C-alpha cells in the first residue's frame, strides 16, 4: 500500500500519550490508550498489506513473518540486552531474579502473560520493572501469528462480517468478564481482550479501502471531532475504568476514523515533516522511554520524578531512540534473513551470558539475607506446616502465632523473648491476608486476590491448630483495611473455648520508602529522612476489641526508642522494605521490649 506520512503522525501522537502517562500518570491519566492507538494502526496496516498481497497472489506466510521480525526484533533484542546489563548494576541482588525472569519472558514475546499475574508480594513492583512495556509488543507479535490465518483462509467477501462479529463478541465477553470478576488487570495484558482493537483497524481497512471523502469542510469537521474524542479519552479514562472492553472501542474507533478520513487539515498537520519524523522514531521511542523511567524509579524507590530527572529521561530517550532507529532498525530492514538469524543467535548468546552473570554484577549490593528479606520462620509461611520457636524445653508451649507477613516478621521477636523467658510457640502464617474464615475476597484488589486465594487454602489447617492451643497470637499489617479481617477476628474470639486467650498485636509502623534501595547497605550510609507511618485507627480498633472481649488482650509493638529511629537501629538496617522488620530489627525490638512484653504476657501464661 502507499506510504502515508499522516499515519506516522498518528503514531507520534500515540507515543506522546503513552510517554506523558508514564512520566506521571496524574498529568494524563488515560494516556495509556496510546497503546490502543498503536494496535489499531497495526491492524489497519497489516490487513491492508495482507489483502493486497492476497489479491495479487504474492502473499506467503514465511515472507510476512520474516518482515515482521526484521522490523521488530533487532532493536527489541538490543534493548533487552542493554537494559538487562544496566539493570544488573541498578537492581539489588534480592531482585535480580525479577529482572532475569522479565528479560526471558520478553525476548520470547510472552511478557504479557508474566505481567498479568501482577506484583509479587515482596520485591520490585511492576512500575519499577524496565520490561513492563514489552507486554504490548508481545501481544502484537502474538496477533501477527493469527491475523494471516484469518485473512487468507476466509473468503474476502465474508471477511468484514466475520471480523465485525468477532469484534463485537469478544468485546462483550471481555466486558462481562471484567464486570463479573471486578478485575481489569489480567484482561489488560490479555491478547484476547486486545484483539478487537486490531480487528477494528482491520475492519476499516477492508470497508474503507478508498477512504472517506465528503468534501474538505466535512472532512475537517469529522477528523477534528474524532481527534477531540481521542484526546478526551486520554483525559477521562483512567486506570480505575473498566478497561479494556467496550470502553476500549472509543479510542479504537476514533483512531480508525482518523486513518480513513481523506483530505483534511488534521491529516495534513500529522503528515508534516516533524510529526512524521517522530512517527518514524515512535517504535524506538516506545522501546527506550520506559526502561529509563523504571530504573530511576527503582533506584530512588519513588514513583514521581523530579524536574531534573524528567529532563534527563526526555533527552536520553530521544538520543537512544535516534541511535536505535538509525543504526539498528534501518540497518536490518535492508539485510537478508540470514543476517537476522546470525545476529539474533549472537544476541541471544550475549543476553544469556549477561542474565547468567547478573547476580555477580549486582554483587556490590549483595547484603546478607537477614537484612533484606524474610529469612526466619519461612518454612511455616504459606505452607501447611508448623514450626516451633522459643524455649522448646519449656512446659509453656500451647501458644500459636498466626497472621500475615507481619506475623512472619515478629517470629524472631517472640523467639528471642521466648528463649530467655521459657516459653515456646508454634506458627503458621501467610502472605498478605491472614488465614481466617470470613475474610471476603471482594475486599481485595486484583493484585491481592492471589494472596487471598492462597491464604484460604490454609484456613482449615489454621483452625485445627487454633483448637490445639491455649494462647493465640495474631499480627496483621491491618485489621481494619479491609474490615472483614477485623470481623473475622471478632468471630474467632467468640468461638474460643473458655480457657483460650487471644492476643492481638498492633503491628510495627510503616515507612514511606524502601530503605534497602535507598541505603544499599546494611550499615547506614544515606542521609535521607524517612517518614514513619503509624496506624492509629488500627490501634484504636484493637484496643476497643480487647476492652469489650473478656478473652482478648492487646499489645502494642509500635512503641519504644527503637521504633522512633526506624528504619535504622544503632545505624544498622532494621527493615527489609517499607513495611516489614528484618530479623535484626525484630530482635532489636525484642531486646528493648522484653521486660515490657513479659510484664504483659507472664500473667496470661500462669492463668
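^ Assign residues to that structure.
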Amino acid at each position: 500500500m502507499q506510504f502515508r506520512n499522516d499515519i506516522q503522525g498518528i503514531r507520534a501522537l500515540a507515543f506522546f500519550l503513552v510517554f506523558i502517562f508514564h512520566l506521571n500518570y496524574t498529568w494524563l491519566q488515560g494516556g495509556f490508550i496510546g497503546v490502543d492507538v498503536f494496535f489499531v494502526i497495526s491492524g489497519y496496516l497489516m490487513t491492508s498489506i495482507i489483502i493486497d498481497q492476497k489479491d495479487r497472489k504474492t502473499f506467503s506466510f514465511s515472507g510476512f513473518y520474516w518482515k515482521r521480525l526484521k522490523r521488530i526484533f533487532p532493536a527489541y533484542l538490543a534493548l533487552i540486552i542493554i537494559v538487562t546489563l544496566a539493570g544488573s548494576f541498578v537492581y539489588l541482588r534480592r531482585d535480580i531474579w525479577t529482572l532475569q525472569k522479565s528479560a526471558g519472558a520478553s525476548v520470547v514475546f510472552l511478557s504479557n502473560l508474566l505481567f498479568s499475574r501482577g506484583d509479587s508480594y515482596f520485591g520490585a513492583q511492576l512500575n519499577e520493572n524496565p520490561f513492563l512495556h514489552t507486554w504490548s509488543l508481545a501481544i502484537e507479535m502474538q496477533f501477527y501469528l493469527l491475523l494471516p490465518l484469518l485473512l487468507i483462509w476466509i473468503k474476502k467477501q465474508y471477511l468484514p462480517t466475520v471480523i465485525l462479529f468477532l469484534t463485537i463478541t469478544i468485546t462483550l465477553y471481555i466486558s462481562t468478564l471484567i464486570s463479573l470478576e471486578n478485575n481489569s488487570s489480567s484482561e489488560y495484558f490479555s491478547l484476547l481482550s486486545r484483539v478487537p482493537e486490531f480487528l477494528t483497524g482491520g475492519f476499516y481497512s477492508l470497508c474503507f479501502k478508498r477512504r472517506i471523502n465528503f468534501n474538505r469542510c466535512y472532512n475537517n469537521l469529522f477528523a477534528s471531532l474524532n481527534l477531540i474524542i481521542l484526546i478526551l479519552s486520554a483525559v477521562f479514562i483512567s486506570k480505575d475504568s473498566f478497561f479494556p472492553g467496550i470502553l476500549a472501542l472509543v479510542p479504537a474507533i476514533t483512531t480508525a476514523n482518523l486513518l480513513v478520513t481523506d483530505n483534511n487539515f488534521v491529516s495534513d498537520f500529522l503528515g508534516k515533516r516533524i510529526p512524521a519524523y517522530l512517527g518514524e522514531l515512535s517504535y524506538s521511542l516506545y522501546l527506550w522511554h520506559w526502561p529509563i523511567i523504571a530504573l530511576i524509579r527503582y533506584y530512588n524507590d519513588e514513583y514521581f520524578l523530579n524536574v531534573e530527572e524528567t529532563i534527563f529521561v526526555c533527552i536520553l530517550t530521544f538520543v537512544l531512540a535516534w541511535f536505535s532507529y538509525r543504526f539498528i532498525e534501518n540497518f536490518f530492514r535492508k539485510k537478508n534473513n540470514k543476517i537476522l538469524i546470525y545476529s539474533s543467535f549472537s544476541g541471544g548468546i550475549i543476553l544469556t551470558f549477561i542474565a547468567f552473570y547478573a547476580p555477580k554484577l549486582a554483587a556490590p549490593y549483595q547484603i546478607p539475607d537477614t537484612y533484606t528479606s524474610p529469612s526466619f520462620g519461612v518454612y511455616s509461611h504459606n505452607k501447611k506446616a508448623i514450626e516451633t520457636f522459643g524455649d522448646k524445653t519449656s512446659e509453656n508451649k500451647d501458644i500459636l502465632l498466626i497472621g500475615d507477613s507481619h506475623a512472619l516478621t515478629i517470629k524472631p521477636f517472640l523467639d528471642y523473648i521466648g528463649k530467655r523467658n521459657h516459653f515456646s510457640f508454634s506458627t503458621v502464617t501467610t502472605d498478605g491476608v491472614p488465614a481466617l474464615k470470613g475474610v471476603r475476597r471482594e475486599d481485595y484488589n486484583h493484585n491481592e486476590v492471589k494472596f487471598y486465594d492462597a491464604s484460604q487454602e490454609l484456613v482449615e489447617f489454621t483452625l485445627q491448630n487454633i483448637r490445639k492451643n491455649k494462647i493465640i497470637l495474631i499480627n496483621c499489617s491491618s485489621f481494619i483495611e479491609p474490615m472483614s479481617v477485623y470481623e473475622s477476628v471478632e468471630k474467632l474470639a467468640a468461638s474460643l473455648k473458655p480457657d483460650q486467650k487471644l492476643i492481638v498485636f498492633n503491628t510495627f509502623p510503616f515507612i514511606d520508602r524502601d530503605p534497602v534501595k535507598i541505603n544499599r547497605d546494611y550499615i547506614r550510609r544515606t542521609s535521607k529522612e524517612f517518614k514513619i507511618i503509624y496506624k492509629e485507627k488500627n490501634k484504636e480498633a484493637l484496643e476497643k476489641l480487647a476492652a469489650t472481649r473478656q478473652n482478648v488482650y492487646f499489645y502494642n509493638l509500635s512503641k519504644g526508642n527503637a521504633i522512633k529511629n526506624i528504619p535504622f537501629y544503632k545505624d544498622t538496617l532494621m527493615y527489609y522494605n517499607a513495611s516489614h522488620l528484618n530479623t535484626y530489627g525484630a530482635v532489636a525490638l525484642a531486646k528493648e521490649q522484653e521486660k515490657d512484653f513479659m510484664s504483659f504476657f507472664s500473667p496470661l501464661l500462669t492463668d
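The first helix runs from residue 5 to 23.
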